[in-house]
Fold:
Amino acid sequence: MAYRETEKMRQRKAEARQRIVDCTFQCVMDGGFRSARINRIADLAGVATGTIYRHFESREDLFAGVFRLATQREVDKVAEALATEGNAAARLETALRQFAERALRGPMMAWSLIAEPVDPKVEEERLKYRKAYASLFETAIREGISEGCLPDQDARQSSTCLVGAIAESLVGPLSPTQPARIRRQHLTTPMHWSIPSFAFACRD
Structure:
C-alpha cells in the first residue's frame, strides 16, 4: 500500500518550513546573510540540518527565498506610499523618505538587501527587485509629467537613476562598519529629497 501523507504531517512540514524561514530572517536581521549559517538556523528552528535541505534545494535557495520575502515587504511599502494623496512629486518624496527611514531603523537587514555581497542566486533577486522599484517610480514619474509637476523626461531612465541614487546614498550610513551613533544621527536627521530637481537633472 502506497504511503499517503496525512493532513497532520503536511501541517507539521509547513510549520517546520516556516520556522526555518523565520529563523533565517532573524539571522539576517541580526548579522546579515554572512551570519546565517545552516547549523545556527537549524538550532534556532529546532530541526536537523538535513531537514532544511528537504525543504530547500540549497543554502542559496533558502537565502533567495528570504530575500524575496524581505524585499517584497519594502516594495509593498513603497507602493503604498505612492498610492497616497497628493501630486506625483509629493508622493515620490514620501516614498523615498519612507524607504530611507525604514532602512535606517533596520540597518543590518537593509544593508543585506541593498549592498551586502551575496551569492549569485540572491543577487539575481536583488536585480529583480531593483526593477520592481524602478517600475513603481517610472509610473509615478509618468504621472508627474502628465500632471505638470515634473518636467518632460525619459521616465524609465529617471526611475532607474532614482533607484541607484537612493541605494548609493544609503550604503555609507547602513554599512556595518559605521558606528552606531552615526547611524542614529542619520535616523534623527530629517530626510530631504527634491524630486523635481532630481527629475529636471535627468531630463533629456
